[in-house]
Amino acid sequence: MDLRAVARLANVSIATVSRSINRASTVNPKTAKRVWRAIEKLDYFPNTQARALVSGRSRLLGLIVSEITFPELIQGFDDVAVEHGYDVLITSTNHDSGRMSLCIRRMLERRVEGVAVMTFGMEKPLLEQLAERKVPLLFVDAGPEKPGVSMLRVDYGQGIRQGVQHLAELGHRDITFISGDRA
Question: Which is more confidently placed, 79 or 104?
Answer without folding.
Answer: 79
